[in-house]
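> Could you send the Phosphate transport system permease protein PstA prediction when you get a chance?

Sure thing. Input:
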Amino acid sequence: MTTTTNGAAGDLAAAIDQPLSQRKLPRWAPWGSLAVAVVLSLAVLLPGGTSKGAVAVLAALLHLVVIGVASGVREGSRKAKDRLVTALVTIAFLVAMVPLVSVVWTVVDNGRHRLDADFFTMSMFRIVGEGGGALHAIWGTIIITLIATVISVPIGLMTAVYLVEYGAGSRLARAITFLVDVMTGIPSIVAGLAVAALFALVSGPGTKLGIMGAIALAILMVPTVVRSTEEMLKLVPNDLREAAYALGVPKWRTVVKVVLRTSVSGIATGITLAVARVAGETAPLLITVGITTGSNFNPFEGRMATLPVYAFYQYTQPGVPAAAGTERAWTAALVLIALVMLLNLVARLISRFFAPKTGR
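Output:
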């Protein structure tokens, strides 16, 4: 018994005598390892005319080896594993960013040539070659997307409120959830075909209207609005609902004044992201709206131009000279990307502005 007690005391004393700080690599070690890996890769592969992609792959592998060995020798195996995983995650992030940066750079590089005042103040009416602009397409995109938002947001909001507040666990709620999941995965062209078939029965085949495109986009927006709103409503604590019920507040008023106001930040963000998602759809608008060279502000009469369809036709049917149409197509794509980025920025600002204040 005495021997066991003395051994435990010795182990405790040995643990206490351990230094509070362990040996660590300098903070610049990961960057130094990466620099060494890049230099070695360039020295080995670049003289032979190897592509930059092969140099990047070799540099990543050498960085993993160098940082892993250096950390293992200096900091131990546990810290070395941590640094290896951190390096792998960082490399995966950089690989994922390559296509995004490449697309943005390509669009900006090719679209900046026609980024002038004429592009935003002129349409393509009676213009075949050089010149012209996309004013009619910009207004068409704004009008159709706005109508789609007006149609889809109330439907999506009320559906999500029913799923969370009224029909939770019921057969109807489960069926609605299943259908929403199915609608989330349908190709966008299916929505356009469905709307075109519906209006062909009513107005005859070949009908193309702005309202048809708005309805097709609304069909694509509804699942996103439902899902985002549903998740935000589920995050509202039940204590808030019960406190309102205890004060005698009706359920509908509790939903409107307490639940929705608490989750308005996330709901607004989800709606804005849904708008950004459908703003660049091309396939359903090709079928339902078509294209026109002049401005049309009436979605219930005649064809309308939209930026995605405008870019498609300018690229596939550029006219003479072909370079002018190609430049207009790239600039339209650049404007569309800028609009989507602006909508995402608005979503961030809405989320921050309407977020519930937690401070006193």
